[in-house]
Amino acid sequence: MIIGVPKEIKNNENRVALTPAGAAEIRKHGHTLYVQTNAGVGSGFSDEDYRTAGATILPTIEEVYGIAEMIIKVKEPIAQEYNLIKENQLVFTYFHFASSEELTHAMIARKAVCLAYETVEKADRSLPLLVPMSEVAGRMAIQEGAHYLEKPLKGRGILLGGVPGVPPARVLILGGGIVGTQAAKMAAGLGAHVTIMDVSLPRLRYLDDIMPANVDTMMSNEYNIRDRIKVSDLIIGAVLIPGAKAPHLVTRDMLKMMRPGTVLVDVAVDQGGCIETCKPTTHENPTFIIDDVVHYCVANMPGAVPYTSTLALTNATLPYAIQLANKGWQKACRENIELQLGLNVVKGEVVYKGVSEAWNLPYTEVTDVLQTATV
């Protein structure tokens, strides 16, 4: 198969979809790999690194899209890329369709095969291609939140861990999944007083067992959220419904209940956000303020630590990319239910229920599409 790795062009996105080590593995399987020039520079990998691994370097993004049967990316295509995508071309990346109607309609119109990292799902309901970036984002949420609690950045002027004789900051984490767990570990390690909420009692029992003494668990409901936001200094939105929009757990009217300088970090912003007032921001302009509350809503947080993120992402995606390349997307998805669940839009048809419900679009069973797809 002919595989293309374009340079990411989203604002301040420094990750690349494939490391040179990953490129070498793909070449070992006999596939042809084209990488756009400087695609890996932001992550610390030179064009020469990819050449040594057996890839061919192409100067423009147009050439990469033009020649490849499968495109491997990090972030969803943006407007400048829509017309580069060809009919029947397989695009393997994070899409988050439920947060962008424009992107959804664009991919339907292009009649591409869109296989989303975030909905590839194992039998135990875990999301193997979302996990590594969720781990990075969960840890970064605390790192960034602690930074924006500083007074020059309009925060409350609180040191997350406090000092002897001065109490630490109070951190509220909404969601006890991968993001929430990693955020809680980081915040607890810095000495903050942490409350983590979730709707699953078994999950709360698990978290209660593994977390240190400065982490409390609490059932997530509107009453408890309203109660805790009054005394929290840093609030992390870490709720995920795979492939669908995140619910608004913190609503506009709740901001009035928070103290001035409270910091909100919405890690779920690329799925619509679980804080109603959040809208996607960039690393260039990461925050905005509403009612004296600081909102940090960067939609590609791991892009700020691209070396770590690129290695972690390639570790997870490479086995799936090799399956797709070796067998073709049709056979690979027929044989591997995990990959099959990653299909969101196929040749103009929406085949993932969360996406069809988000935008009220016709839904086609993925098995029907696979039965009629040409091998």
From TrEMBL:
<dbReference type="InterPro" id="IPR007886">
    <property type="entry name" value="AlaDH/PNT_N"/>
</dbReference>
<protein>
    <recommendedName>
        <fullName>Alanine dehydrogenase</fullName>
        <ecNumber>1.4.1.1</ecNumber>
    </recommendedName>
</protein>
<dbReference type="InterPro" id="IPR008141">
    <property type="entry name" value="Ala_DH"/>
</dbReference>
<comment type="similarity">
    <text>Belongs to the AlaDH/PNT family.</text>
</comment>
<dbReference type="InterPro" id="IPR008142">
    <property type="entry name" value="AlaDH/PNT_CS1"/>
</dbReference>
<feature type="domain" description="Alanine dehydrogenase/pyridine nucleotide transhydrogenase NAD(H)-binding">
    <location>
        <begin position="149"/>
        <end position="297"/>
    </location>
</feature>
<dbReference type="GO" id="GO:0000286">
    <property type="term" value="F:alanine dehydrogenase activity"/>
</dbReference>
<dbReference type="InterPro" id="IPR007698">
    <property type="entry name" value="AlaDH/PNT_NAD(H)-bd"/>
</dbReference>
<dbReference type="Pfam" id="PF01262">
    <property type="entry name" value="AlaDh_PNT_C"/>
</dbReference>
<dbReference type="Pfam" id="PF05222">
    <property type="entry name" value="AlaDh_PNT_N"/>
</dbReference>
<dbReference type="InterPro" id="IPR008143">
    <property type="entry name" value="Ala_DH/PNT_CS2"/>
</dbReference>
<keyword id="KW-0560">Oxidoreductase</keyword>
<keyword id="KW-0520">NAD</keyword>
<feature type="domain" description="Alanine dehydrogenase/pyridine nucleotide transhydrogenase N-terminal">
    <location>
        <begin position="4"/>
        <end position="137"/>
    </location>
</feature>
<dbReference type="InterPro" id="IPR036291">
    <property type="entry name" value="NAD(P)-bd_dom_sf"/>
</dbReference>
